[in-house]
């Protein structure tokens, strides 16, 4: 007899489209995956946990000191893959290693930035790479307890990660006296349950503490006041996943496969109007045009119109500008946007920018945690304005109002969600103003046509 | 009331946190209750509050803050379709409309036979799989074109004897 669970299983993604294809370039994190080789034996066969052995001095050579591990990560040029691009080695060096109480390590797998779906494939198909990266980080900072906070919507991934944790414990990689050394580290999984804001690191900490996820003021940064009020280092899933390769191959090798100040590979989640949406791991500094080609290019007969290069919070760039960019923090920033989480949302010439902005504005209004007035009121106001323009009820002064509401949110809120809501609005107006004005002057062309 | 089996599941979650930080397990406990009972009732909140040694209002704050907790009973299958922009560009909106027609309900409603509740939701973190839909919080269904949506709904109806 078939059960409901069996039926639902038939619709589960296999990863073939998004992860197991030969269109990565020199992959490090996604290399050699096929969906059935996620478990510990397969990971070890791919060279897994060798970096940890090296760090603990179990490969015949001397153990690395904490300072050596941090120095290697600094040398690699690894920057946080969660979106802000903060140098990882530097962040690790902020941890007060001599702090007498409990310190914590947290992995941010709350991937919820519209367009981003890379951490899900890492955790589902290569969970041990994240576990190994976290153990090494914990060693470097002298931390004995860690949590991985996993987006509540990807529950199957949470279960997979818990299974991988069990394997790692059984193999002696996690727990007391790891591989017979004096170093101990306990790691647990924690799941969210539907709140975009919990991806913000201090909201995430509140959430692990069993509260609603409302961001805290920074500073103090988690490095000094984090989980349970104790020093805490938080990194993104992909950031931790990069660490084993860096330890095995050295900092300079990692830096060499990217660009100066932009070391390593980066996974880009390509969504929207391309023929083959999916995750693509490529060296930092790869031309955007190359990524577009890997993703199958545009659909026949369609032209590229615009790209949101780093998740929905990053400013949109018109085709002419993005086609000149390379994919690294510096190039995209110079073009006026952000590399962010690496979520590349592609839009072709059939797309209406007013409608697109309307949906994004709805999202930010829906997900504002409500703590700061400019964000709570401003996101609602932005959505109502864009909705009104889209319905054909826009007023001539609405463009100015939109711009001024967005401007007055920016820099006046506790967390970056306020900015994330405002930046897309300003970029849309900057690059696609005539499209908005056409809606205001002519009223909604669709409404007129169907009237 | 909460069974011993459920309590064992709670205990497994509580064990992840320091003894004086049991409250950290509240999200997991609430989701366990929701999986077993379909929603989070006030009575469940009270039991969890007592189990974790926290005020009931603090539990309620968590239930109401996070989008996925059902504060009311829902249909046997809660279908949450992502309509955020990346999905919208790949027929996420169309999938929602198709289900509205197929099930004869509007977004947010439950079918008369109590089988399906239809919702729109925000990014599920599976954007390249669009159209995507999350069923009962725990089952991600990918590449849901109209044919697959029909197949899913028809099969679930059949298995529940409501063809
Ligand atoms: N991956 C995703 O799903 C999403 C990613 N984002 C990204 O998040 C970014 C914003 O994140 P924030 O955490 O607000 O950025 P931030 O710039 O405040 O911090 C970045 C990291 O560096 C640390 N840091 C910065 N200065 C520090 C200091 N002086 N001392 C100690 N630590 C310090 C912070 O603790 C944090 O871990 C945006 O750029 C956006 O791209 C936003 C939404 C979702
Ligand atoms: C509204 C908001 C949502 C965020 N969501 C995420 C997220 O889902 N995943 C993530 O890694 N970082 C997210 N961040 C960034 C984190 O606050 C933090 O910078 C990051 O986890 C640090 O890790 P990294 O240095 O390895 O990038 C978000 C930030 C904001 C303001
Ligand atoms: S900016 Fe918005 S989401 Fe961030 S703390 Fe303020 S109200 Fe909450
Ligand atoms: S936008 Fe729909 S899953 Fe991300």
Written account of the structure:
The complex is a heterodimer of chains A (451) and B (163). Chain A folds into 3 domains: 244 residues, 3-Layer(aba) Sandwich (Rossmann fold); 84 residues, Ubiquitin-like (UB roll), CATH 3.10.20.600; 90 residues, de novo design (two linked rop proteins). Helices cover 44% and strands 12% of the residues of chain A. In chain A, the strands form 3 sheets. In chain A, strands 6-5-11-8-9 form a 5-stranded mixed sheet, with helices on both faces. Chain A starts with a helix and ends with a helix. In chain B, helix 1 runs antiparallel to helix 2, helix 2 runs antiparallel to helix 3 and helix 3 crosses helix 4. Chain B is 45% helix and 11% strand. With 163 residues, chain B is α+β, with helices and mostly antiparallel strands. The two termini of chain B are 33 Å apart. Chain B is built from 7 helices and 4 strands; from the N terminus they run ααααβααβββα. Chains A and B meet through helix 1, strand 3, strand 5, strand 11 and helix 15 of A and helix 2, helix 4, helix 5, strand 4 and helix 7 of B. Flavin mononucleotide binds next to strand 4 and helix 18 of chain A. Chain B: Pfam families: 2Fe-2S_thioredx. Chain B: Its cofactor is [2Fe-2S] cluster. Chain B: This is NADH dehydrogenase subunit E.
């Amino acid at each position: 007899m078939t059960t409901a669970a069996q039926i639902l299983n038939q619709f589960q993604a296999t990863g073939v489209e998004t992860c197991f294809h030969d269109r990565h370039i020199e992959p490090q994190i996604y290399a050699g995956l096929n969906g059935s080789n996620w478990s510990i034996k397969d990971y070890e066969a791919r060279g897994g946990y060798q970096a940890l052995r090296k760090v603990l001095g179990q490969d015949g050579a001397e153990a690395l000191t904490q300072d050596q591990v941090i120095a290697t990560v600094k040398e690699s040029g690894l920057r946080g893959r969660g979106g802000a691009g903060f140098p990882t080695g530097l962040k690790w060096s902020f941890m007060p290693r001599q702090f007498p109480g409990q310190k914590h390590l947290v992995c941010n797998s709350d991937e919820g930035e519209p367009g981003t779906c890379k951490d899900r494939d890492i955790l589902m198909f290569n969970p041990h790479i994240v576990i190994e990266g976290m153990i090494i980080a914990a060693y470097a900072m002298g931390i004995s307890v860690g949590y991985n906070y996993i987006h509540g919507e990807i529950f199957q991934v949470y279960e997979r990660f818990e299974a991988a944790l069990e394997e790692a414990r059984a193999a002696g990689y996690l727990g007391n006296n790891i591989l017979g050394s004096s170093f101990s580290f306990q790691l647990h999984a924690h799941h969210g349950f539907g709140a975009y804001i919990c991806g913000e690191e201090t909201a995430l900490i509140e959430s692990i503490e069993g509260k609603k996820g409302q961001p805290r003021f920074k500073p103090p940064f988690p490095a000094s006041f984090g989980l349970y009020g104790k020093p805490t280092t938080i990194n993104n899933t992909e950031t931790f996943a990069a660490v084993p390769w860096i330890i095995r191959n050295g900092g300079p090798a990692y830096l060499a496969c990217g660009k100066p100040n932009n070391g390593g590979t980066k996974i880009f989640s390509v969504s929207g109007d391309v023929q083959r949406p999916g995750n693509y791991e490529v060296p930092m500094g790869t031309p955007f045009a190359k990524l577009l080609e890997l993703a199958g290019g545009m659909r026949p007969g369609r032209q590229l119109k615009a790209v949101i290069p780093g998740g929905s919070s990053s400013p949109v760039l018109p085709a002419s500008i993005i086609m000149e960019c390379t994919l690294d923090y510096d190039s995209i920033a110079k073009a006026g946007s952000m590399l962010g989480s690496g979520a590349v949302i592609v839009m072709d010439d059939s797309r209406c920018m007013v409608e697109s902005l309307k949906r994004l504005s709805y999202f930010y209004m829906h997900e504002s945690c409500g703590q700061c007035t400019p964000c709570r009121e401003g996101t609602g106001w932005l959505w109502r304005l864009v909705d009104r323009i889209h319905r054909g009820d826009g007023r001539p002064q609405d463009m100015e109002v939109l711009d001024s509401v967005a401007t007055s949110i920016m820099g006046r809120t506790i967390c970056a969600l306020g900015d994330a809501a405002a930046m897309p609005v300003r970029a849309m107006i900057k690059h696609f103003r005539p499209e908005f004005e056409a809606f205001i002057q002519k009223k909604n062309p669709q409404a007129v046509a169907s009237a | 009331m909460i069974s011993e089996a459920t309590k064992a599941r709670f205990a497994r979650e509580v064990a992840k946190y320091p003894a004086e930080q049991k409250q950290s397990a509240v999200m997991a406990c609430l989701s366990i209750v929701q999986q077993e009972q379909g929603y989070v009732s006030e009575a469940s909140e009270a039991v969890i509050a007592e189990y974790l040694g926290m005020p009931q209002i603090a539990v309620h704050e968590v239930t109401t803050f996070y989008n996925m907790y059902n504060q009311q009973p829902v249909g046997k299958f809660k279908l949450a379709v992502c309509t955020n922009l990346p999905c919208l560009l790949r027929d996420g909106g169309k999938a929602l409309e198709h289900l509205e027609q197929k099930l004869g309900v509007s977004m947010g409603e439950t079918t008369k036979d109590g089988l399906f509740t239809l919702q729109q939701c925000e990014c599920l973190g599976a954007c390249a799989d669009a159209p995507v839909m999350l069923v009962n919080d725990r089952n991600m269904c990918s590449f849901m074109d109209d044919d697959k949506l029909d197949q899913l709904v028809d099969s679930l109806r059949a298995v529940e004897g409501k063809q």
